[in-house]
Design goal:
131 residues; globular; 11 strands
């Protein structure tokens, strides 16, 4: 079965860095769309970044541009989210998500941040940034 396992969350002070990892298994990883989302208490789930694992096209939210970078290592079926210059407002549970249909890349530019585009989700990892 499909599994997405996140790791790398934790507590840091403002200005610090964390790297989240998402290991995928159980489907054809090499041509899928992977996303990172976050959800703070009382807030809707927000798209942070997305990558097409085939050729590495990336998309990101304006709120994290210049600070967060999404990347992938296809030899490890792993997607990363490098988070630098963290701010207290980045505090949230971060989720990895996968869209496994082969046509996701054609929709990705328009809909990468829509949770409904993704059919599998990880369990989430907590990121807490203190001021």
């Amino acid at each position: 079965q499909v599994q997405l396992v996140e790791s790398g969350g934790g507590s840091v002070q403002a200005g610090g860095s964390l790297r989240l990892s998402c290991v995928a298994s159980g489907y054809i990883y090499s041509s899928s769309c992977m996303g990172w989302f976050r959800q703070a208490p009382g807030e809707e789930r927000e798209g942070v970044a997305s990558i097409y694992t085939g050729v590495g096209f990336t998309y990101g939210a304006d709120s994290v541009k210049g600070r967060f970078t999404i990347s992938r290592d296809n030899s490890k079926n792993t997607v990363y989210l490098q988070m630098n210059s963290l701010k207290p407002e980045d505090t949230a549970i971060y989720y990895c998500a996968a869209a496994t249909d082969r046509y996701c890349r054609y929709r990705q530019s328009a809909s990468w941040s829509e949770p409904s585009e993704y059919n599998y989700w990880g369990q989430g990892t907590q990121v807490t940034v203190s001021s």
